[in-house]
Amino acid sequence: MPVQQLFYKTAVPVSADRHGDLSVSAGKSYAFAKTANSIPVTAAEFAPAAAHHPIVFAGSGDEVVPAVILGTRDDENLAVDAEGQWRETYIPAFVRRYPFIFALDNEKNRFTLLVDEEFDGANREGRGERLFDSEGEQTGYLKSVLKFLQDYQASFARTQAFCKRMKELDLLVPMQAEFSLAAGQKRTLGGFQVVDRERLKALSGETLADLCRKDELECIYLHLSSMRHFRDMLGRANSEAASAVEPTPAAAPEDAAEPMANA
Fold first, then answer.
1. Region annotation Disordered: residue ranges (predicted)?
2. Domain membership flag for residue 5
3. How far is residue 58's CA from residue 190's CA, in Å, rounded to a whole number?
4. Do the Cβ atoms of 129 and 24 come closer than 8 Å?
5. Interatomic CA distance for residues 137 and 108, integer angstroms
6. Which tens digit of pLDDT belongs to each residue from 211-228?
7. What is the rounded CA–CA span in Å between residue 166 and residue 21?
8. Cis link prior to 249 (omega < 30° from 0)?
9. At what angle do helices 205-213 and 216-225 cross, to 10 degrees?
10. What phi and psi values does residue 131 have, to the nearest 5 degrees?
């Protein structure tokens, strides 16, 4: 489950010269995320995200980020329906910021705003919101986009510090989720890590108090509590599978979806 740019295809720097007549119609369809079975989230999103999705830690080595699991297999996002609508109440900020993204300009030591020109809602026919006005100045919409991404970047930086802390305390262990569908299919989803409860309990009182003061302990328990949603995903996967095949009179085996530690 590699963390990458996911649905971004042709992201280029936003400029009045290139995008003076560009409009963006966003938030009407999330079909672009249909094949993303995991999406990064920031620590600030744990509370709303944990109410709907399992939150895990994706990546390897020292580079890990929190992410919500959205499907029982690669290229499957059960949160997006056939019409491209997001089924769940909470939509991750990573999704909501699309088609925009920040890129770090190392030479100037600053972030540059990019837009994915292949986004279906990007157009030059005036549909949606203009990025620049007739004078070439930023519109209120573009300024709101910049503010949103600035806030997101700040939250992401705090999340990186949280993940670094999890690694330093050696709390993360590799896990995999095993799914047994009603039709008899078996699916295994791995490549992620979770906080080990026993290692958490073994921390000193001083360390736990420090985690509490920094609101990191709350994030840990939200993450652990969110594991229950793996079973919810199984129910959605069974519904998707049932709608894709002809029903048969054969008895179905009992469903199962359990996260398991790797040996």
1. 241-263
2. no
3. 10
4. yes
5. 22
6. 999 999 999 999 999 999
7. 46
8. no
9. 90
10. -90, -30
Task: Find out whether 136 and 30 touch, Cβ atoms under 8 Å.
Answer: no
DSSP per residue, 96-119: HTTTEEEEEETTTTEEEEEEETT-
Beta strands in the chain (DSSP E): 11-13, 23-24, 38-40, 55-60, 63-69, 100-105, 110-116, 122-123, 129-130, 172-180, 186-195, 256-261
- Name the residue with tokens 């919101």: 129
Q: How far apart are CA 61 and CA 63, in angstroms?
A: 6
Residue for token digits 């809602």? 121
How far from 62 is each of 65, 210, 226, CA to CA, in Å? 10, 21, 23
Residue 1 predicted with pLDDT over 50 = no
Tell me the one-letter amino acid at 111.
Answer: F
Q: CA-to-CA distance for 167 and 172, rounded, in angstroms?
A: 7
> Looking at residue 226, what DSSP letter applies?
G
User: What kind and span of H or E run contains 147?
Assistant: helix 140-168
Residue pointed to by tokens 């649905």: 7
Write the pLDDT tens digit of every residue in 133-151.
Answer: 999 999 999 999 999 999 9
Residues in the chain: 263
Q: Tokens 């989230």, residue? A: 41
Contact between residue 26 and residue 115 where contact means Cβ atoms under 8 Å apart: no
Domain count, the chain: 1
In a domain, 3, yes or no: no
Tell me whether residue 1 is in a domain. no
Domain that holds residue 15: 11-261
